[in-house]
Amino acid sequence: MRASRLIPAVLTALALTVPASTLSASTAGAEPVDPAPNPWLEARVMNMAHSGGENEAPMNTMYAFERAAKLGADMLELDVHSTADGRLVVIHDATVDRTTNGTGQVEDLPVRKVRRLDAAHWFVPGRSAVHGLPAQRYPLRGARYGKVRVRGHQPKDFRVPQLWEVFKRFPRTPINIEIKGTSDADLASYQRTGRLLARFLNKVGRTDVIVASFNDAALTDFHQRAPQIGLAPGMAALTAYVLTGTPPMEGTVALQVPVTYQGIPIVTRAFVDRAHSDGYAVHVWFSGSAPDDAATYRRMIDTCADGLMPARPTVLETILDKRGIVRPGQPGVDPCA
Known about the structure:
- By secondary structure, this protein is an alpha/beta fold.
- It has a single domain, classed as Alpha-Beta Barrel (TIM Barrel).
- It is 28% helix and 15% strand.
- The protein has ten helices and 13 strands.
- Helix 6 links the parallel strand 7 and strand 8.
- The longest helix is centred in the middle third of the chain and has 18 residues.
- It is globular.
């Protein structure tokens, strides 16, 4: 998730235009129907390690996911693209350039080439992927090829994983999956990945999953193919909900939103209360929208948000533990009691 991609209309209400095809049909005049229970409202307060915790480990790698799970993360957040040969790989960007030692668009590369790459090549502790620094600033560079040894981990833990590998390694850890595309305008790339994802999830049969995307049309298409999987809506549906209260698309279980947009708060106690009363969990992401630090994490916990997506999951875990905050399946202090 990135705040820079959340359209300004979320805050300004200027010239709002939401394609009707991306939203649920109006329920005006219809008999009220009690919604099905939303299990994600009970799964709180979650540490949803963003990309496995990209400021603490190379993002979207098995190394990052294993590290986050061991420290206590309740859910893993990750991103998927599809390769030239139709495989789902776990990587944030549409190209491999920012995080690996390769170049090119994911959709143009076969999976065998993507998997050869070093996904820790540009990782700098505390800063995620940063280019152009002295070689000693990259302590995990080469771990993919065994040139750097990390106790308890294999070279393959530092490559770009396929989605099935993550599901196999974490059969009981909930997973939040964002459908990615090559660009905002390339609907076909979003839908291609979404359809492959729907086929995969239908086959594995797990429902402890939330699927998100900035592209509402791709989510609508995905939902038609895998209706058992809960959704977090994209930009158009989220905008309509924030500004006008328009219900998001069928299948929505969570609103995944940034802390702020251009310095203006999005996640407030009033927003969370409203979402809860409408039957939706609230999950907060930080990338580009607010500092990924202890002060922000504490503030978001106090809004009654159900989950936080930190780049620094160790910091959030420490706060949750010290405050004795309730966790999924574990008793504790409810910050909203």
